[in-house]
Specification:
The complex is a heterodimer. By secondary structure, chain A is α/β, with parallel strands linked by helices. Chain A has two domains: about 130 residues, Glutathione S-transferase Yfyf (Class Pi), Chain A, domain 2, CATH 1.20.1050.140; about 170 residues, Rossmann fold. In chain A, about 45% of the residues lie in helices and about 10% in strands. In chain A, the strands form two sheets. In chain A, strands 2-1-3-4 form a four-stranded parallel beta sheet, sandwiched between helices. A four-stranded parallel beta sheet of chain A has the order 6-5-7-8, sandwiched between helices. In chain A, strand 7, helix 14 and strand 8 form a beta-alpha-beta unit. In chain A, helix 3 crosses helix 15, helix 5 packs across helix 7 and helix 8 runs parallel beside helix 11. The two termini of chain A are about 35 Å apart. In chain B, the strands form six sheets. In chain B, strands 5-2-1-9-20 form a five-stranded parallel beta sheet, covered by helices on one side. Chain B is elongated, with a radius of gyration of 21 Å. Chain B has two domains: about 180 residues, FAD/NAD(P)-binding domain; about 150 residues, FAD/NAD(P)-binding domain, CATH 3.50.50. Chain B is of the alpha/beta class. The chains are: A alpha/beta, B alpha/beta. Chains A and B meet through helix 1 of A and strand 15 of B.
């Protein structure tokens, strides 16, 4: 543990205290529609911070770029436009919701640092395309960095802890870090790429125990071309399966991730594997719940789990709520914000819901 | 004529060997050793490569030669300052007492690479990841056991930990690790003939006499398996074994295996004393080691008159090379002091 602490201390980054410009993800609002709204609520309501959620934001091109269909010059120009939107808000602290975007921005800024002519070229491209100018952000932090940064303050406001209410034991939590958060620019992460601390720090602070399992660093299964090219999808699910098999002996209570793709694939592939093989990775056939860090934070703060979008998960999270003692109304699970019943999804063949 | 006095800093094999030769020729030698005993890293070794000679016997021979009226041994003394004052060299210790000499031999040696810097290999985090230094200590007890006290049935050695690695800033080869891996693997198999031993390497540099033969014997007689490839990550399994991921570059395939213990063959880095004293005298060379005047022909001299270097304070060397180098340094010092007359 002392060695891990030393590593963590070596990888500390500057995280702005307030006044953020938020860039929503292209895909998260479909996969986990409550997570981003939960993050904004935590920042505004619980932490009293200013954060601008600009409806004009757009893709960073990350998925296209990593699928080799968007050239880097285009990516740089589109990122520059996002920065110019931030400039419109007179803010300097950029907060991209998606880990892939976070990696893209770090890559773009690092390119401009080492190749200033590329920055000038990007300025020219943006000017020609939109007539806009831009300045680069003073600070870029992933939202998980911000939650980590304020984890102690949030703990004070939390209604629950990551503790089994029956046994009093800490919950065993698998933390999975998106590759583009720390594996590309480890110095831009909290805790480095080998033993990242960004989620582990939240888990430990809030009473849980981090599970270190052999395939901890392995890809979640998304891997861009592994999934996006349909013929490769066998690789995608094989990677996820490798992780589940590796973590199973530790009997994790849930998985938490800071990446849209990771949360999506680790959740949805559990359903697929159950359908294909009848296999689940827990003792009760329910699967291992997969939460985003915003959902985990909101859950402990006492937010209604159905407002944070927990019912959208493939592996249902009630087993986790019951362990912690989270209050929830099962009748409200599929009731929309308008009060109307949204309909109940079809039940899987094997996965117990 | 006044007797010439030589100060030797470092009581490892290089310092001991040089002191012996100089004293034999009637020079007055003061030998400073920071530890309570001389011997340096040799004290941690059981058997020597490539002939499995008794390290203890050599240790006794080297330290026994220091019992000489011409040698004043100062153990437990850490030298903090080294400089020239007029015609004399001055060393100051942590106790702040000064010692004067006509020549100085820097024999401050190396430090094993700190394996925790290779975060992905899990040293200091996973119980059954150890270093070659830890393994040697275990060999001294005559028993190889894992953290749980059980006999390992499968063990892996990883070469070049902290050597030939630009990521940690050490692109150089540490010279001794390849043959040391072969030695340790053979020692392991002699203790546990039914166990499996795997060695991961970039390439096996068998440059010394009998090295290649031992490498071959280790495969033919002891059944040790060599895999060309570096381990990319190590992680503990549920039963506290170590899962390794590597690439077998000869087979062109990724490889995953589980072992009971992983031994990291740590390379050599300049010791703190080497870097400090070399810096004070503007003879700091690459990677913090002390620089000799020239690799060909002036390898024990430095650009500072009267300041000499021997052994692994210059660069990684094997024990055999270190002892030969120390003898050479003694001759260079004697020649210098004679010409000085």
């Amino acid at each position: 543990m002392e060695i891990k602490k030393r590593f963590w201390n070596e990888y500390q980054k500057e995280i702005a205290e307030d006044d953020y410009f938020y860039e929503r993800s292209c895909i998260r609002q479909t996969f986990f529609p409550g997570s981003e709204a939960t993050f904004l609520k935590i920042l505004r309501q619980d932490l009293g911070k200013q954060i601008v959620d600009d409806p004009k934001i757009h893709t960073c091109t990350g998925i296209g770029y990593h699928s080799d269909i968007v050239p880097f010059e285009t990516t740089m120009t589109i990122c520059a436009r996002l920065f110019s939107l931030m400039n419109d808000s007179e803010l300097t602290n950029y907060v991209p919701s998606c880990v892939t975007s976070f990696g893209i921005f770090n890559e773009v800024l690092d390119t401009w640092k080492h190749f200033p002519e590329q920055l000038e070229l990007t300025r020219e491209n943006l000017r020609k395309a939109t007539g806009r100018e831009f300045t680069v952000p003073q600070n870029i932090a992933h939202p998980s960095d911000i939650i980590y940064h304020f984890r102690k303050e949030l703990k004070e406001k939390m209604k629950y802890r990551l503790v089994n209410k029956e046994t009093g034991e800490p919950l065993r939590v698998v933390e999975h870090i998106g590759c583009h958060y720390s594996k590309i620019f480890s110095e831009q992460s909290v805790g480095g790429s080998e033993f990242p601390h960004v989620l582990a720090g939240m888990i430990e602070e809030w009473g849980g125990e981090v599970v270190d399992y052999p395939e901890r660093r392995h890809c979640c299964g998304f891997g861009f071309r592994q999934y996006l090219v349909m013929a490769n999808r066998g690789y995608s699910i094989a990677n996820s399966k490798k992780k589940f098999e590796s973590m199973k002996p530790y009997k994790p209570d849930f998985i938490v991730t800071n990446c849209p793709g990771c949360a999506m694939f680790m959740d949805k592939w559990q359903y697929t594997i159950a359908e294909m093989e009848g296999t689940t990775y827990d003792d009760q056939g329910k699967g291992i719940p997969v939460l985003t860090y915003e959902e985990m934070t909101g859950m402990l703060l006492g937010y209604n789990p159905w407002d944070t979008g927990m019912q959208i998960h493939q592996v249902q999270a009630e087993q986790l709520f019951d362990k912690i003692g989270i209050e929830y109304d099962p009748q409200d699970k599929y009731t929309g914000k308008s009060g109307k019943f949204l309909g109940e999804p079809e039940k899987p063949t094997h996965l117990v819901v | 004529m006044d007797r010439k006095k030589i100060i030797i800093i470092g009581g490892g094999p290089a310092g001991q060997e040089a002191a012996y030769h100089l004293a034999l020729h009637d020079y007055s030698v003061t030998l400073f050793e920071k530890e309570s005993d001389t011997g340096g890293h040799l004290n941690k070794v059981v058997k020597l490569f490539p002939d499995f000679g008794d390290a203890d016997a050599l240790r006794k021979e080297l330290s026994g030669r220091l019992i000489n009226p011409n040698i004043e041994l100062k153990n437990g003394t850490c030298i903090t300052e080294l400089f020239k004052e007029g015609e004399k060299w001055v060393v100051k210790s942590d106790g702040d007492c000064a010692c004067y000499g006509d020549a100085v031999l820097l024999a401050t040696g190396f430090e094993p690479f700190d394996a925790t810097r290779k975060e992905e290999l899990g040293y200091g985090i996973y119980d059954n990841v150890i270093t070659s230094v830890d393994f040697e200590s275990m060999l001294k007890t005559g028993k190889i056991v894992n953290y749980e006290g059980k006999t390992p049935q499968r063990i892996a050695f990883l070469n070049c930990v902290g050597s030939r690695d630009e990521k940690v800033g050490n692109p150089y080869c540490s010279r001794a690790c390849c043959i040391n891996t072969v030695k340790l693997a053979v020692c392991f198999k002699e203790l546990l003939p039914d166990a499996e031993a795997y060695c991961f390497y970039i390439d096996m540099r068998m440059t010394g006499q009998q090295y290649e033969e031992l490498y071959r014997t280790s495969q033919e007689k002891y059944g040790i398996t060599y895999i060309r490839g570096r381990i990319s990550e190590a992680a503990a399994t549920f039963d506290n074994k170590i899962q390794l991921k590597a690439e077998d570059t000869l087979a062109g395939l990724p490889l995953k295996m589980t072992v009971d213990m992983l031994v990291l063959m740590v390379g050599m880095e300049a010791s703190e004393s080497t870097t400090k004293l070399a810096t004070q005298n503007n003879i700091k060379g690459d990677y913090g080691f002390a620089a000799s005047k020239g690799l060909n022909g002036h390898d024990n001299q430095t650009t500072k008159e009267g300041l000499f270097v021997a052994g692994t304070c210059k660069r990684p060397l094997t024990l055999q090379e270190t002892l030969a180098d120390a003898g050479s340094a003694a001759i260079q010092i004697m020649n210098y002091l004679r010409s000085d007359n």
